[in-house]
Amino acid sequence: MTQSKLDATPEPVPQDILEEAQELARGAEILPDGAPGLARKILSARKAGRQLRVKLGVDPTSTDLHLGHAVVFRKLRRFQEFGHQVVLIVGGFTAQIGDPSGRNTTRPPLTAEQVAANAQTYLAQMGVILDVEKTEVVNNADWLARLDLNQLLKLASLVTANQLLAKEGFGDRLEKQLPIGFHELFYPLLQGYDSIAVRSDVELGGTDQRFNILQGRELQPCYGQEPQLALLVPLLEGTDGVQKMSKSYNNYIGLKDAPGDMFGKCMRIPDELIVKYFELATTLTGAEIDRVRAALDAGGNPKDAKEKLSFQVVSQYHGDEAAARALEEWQRVHSQRLAPEDMPLHVVAAATPLFRLLVDARLAGGTGEAKRLIAEGGVRLDGEQVKEPNREISVSGGRSVVLQVGRRKFVRLVANGK
C-alpha cells in the first residue's frame, strides 16, 4: 500500500447528510458503524447521482397486520420522505418455506395461492403508512423460482453448515433435540439472495432478523456488489408488556381494529411502555416525544400520556374525527363512569338467573367464572352493583337494562322482539 493511501483520511460528510442519517437512525440499530455508516452510504449514493435502495422483505403468512408490524413500515416511510427508493419484496417464494427466526418448530408450508391472497391484504394495510405509488413492489418468486441447481449449489457453497446452524433458533432446537428441516437452512441464503437481486443498499427488519440481514450483507460482495447496511428496529411488546406483539399471544393492536377497540387497547399498555410506543407507533417528531418523556419524568399523569398516545394511533389509521370520538367515548365510560352509547344487544325472552345471563351474553366463559365475577362485585345492572348470582332478570315492554362486567364490558338487555 502506498504512503498516500495510508495517509488518506475519510471524506468529510456534509452536515445535512449527517442530520438525515441521525434522523433515520433514531430508535434503530445500524450495522456496521451506526448513523455515521449510514451517512457515508447516503453520501456515496449522492455522488453517484442516485438515492439509496432500501429493502424490506415481507412473508405474507397471515391476513392482518398490527402495530408491531407497522414499526418497520414507519421507518420505511421516513426513508421515502427523504427521497430514497423503498423496495418492498413480497416473499412469494420464501413464504412457502417459512422464516425459522424465533421458531422452535418448522412452519407449515403455504400454497402460492394463499401467499398471493395474503399479500393483497398486506399491501392494502401498508398503504395507510407507505406511499405505495413511490414503492417498488416485487415478488421474490420471480427470481428464486428460476434458480437452477448449479446456481443453488453456488449460493450454498458461500456459507458453511456451521454458520447456518449458529442461527439462534437453530441452536436452541439442537439443544432440545427438536427437528430442523433441511429446507429451513436455505431461508437465510434465499433472503440474502433477495438483496443481490434488488441491489439493496440498506435492509430493514426487526432485531430478530439480524442473522438473515447480515447473511445478505456477506453474500453481496461474492456477486460483485457493495455490502448493504442492516437497520434493525426494536420489537414492540404487546399490551401485556411482556411478549412481543403477536396475534398468537392475543396482545396485539390490529391495524384494522375499530377506532374504539384500538383506543382501548392502547390505554391498556403498561406505563413503562408509553414512551416506547410513542417512539415506535406514532408519527410524532423526536422533539415532541422528548417532551412527553420529560413530562412523565416530572411526575405527569401516565393516563394523560396514554390518552394522547391512543389519540395519535387511532388518528393515523382512522383519522382525527374517529380519534376524537374514541377519546370522548373512552372518557365517558372510564372517567365519567357512564355506559357507552353503542353496545351489543342481548334478548331476554324470559326471566333468567343473573349468572346464566352473563354466560349467554358472552360476558363470562362459564357458570363458575360468572358466579365469581358476581361475588367479587364486578357486575352491575344499570350502574348498581349486584351480588346475587341467582337473581332473576327479566325485561318487559319497551324497557332495556344495561348489564356491565368490569370497566369495559357492556351489553344492553332487551325484551324479545325489541
Summarize the structure.
The chain is an alpha/beta fold and 418 residues long. Helices cover 44% and strands 13% of the residues.
Topology:
Layout: H1 3-7, H2 15-25, E1 29-31, H3 34-47, E2 53-58, H4 67-81, E3 85-90, H5 112-126, E4 135-139, H6 141-144, H7 149-156, H8 161-165, H9 168-175, H10 186-198, E5 202-206, H11 210-219, E6 229-233, H12 259-267, H13 274-281, H14 286-297, H15 302-318, H16 320-335, E7 345-348, E8 352-353, H17 354-360, H18 367-375, E9 379-381, E10 384-385, E11 392-393, E12 400-405, E13 409-415
User: Unreliable runs, pLDDT <50, ≥5 residues?
Assistant: none
Mean pLDDT: 86
Basic shape: elongated
As laid out across the biggest beta sheet, the strand order is 1-6-5-2-3-4
Our Rg estimate from Cα atoms comes to 26 Å
Oligomer state of the chains in this structure: single chain
Coarse structural class: alpha/beta
Query: DSSP helix count?
Result: 18
Describe the structure in your own words.
This protein is of the alpha/beta class and about 425 residues long. Helix content is about 45%, strand content about 15%. The strands form 3 sheets. A 6-stranded mixed sheet has the order 1-6-5-2-3-4, sandwiched between helices. β3 (about 85-90), α5 (about 110-125) and β4 form a beta-alpha-beta unit. α2 crosses α3 and α17 packs across α18 (about 365-375). The model has no long low-confidence stretch (mean pLDDT about 85).
Summary keywords:
single chain; alpha/beta; five-stranded mixed beta sheet; 18 helices; 44% helix; elongated
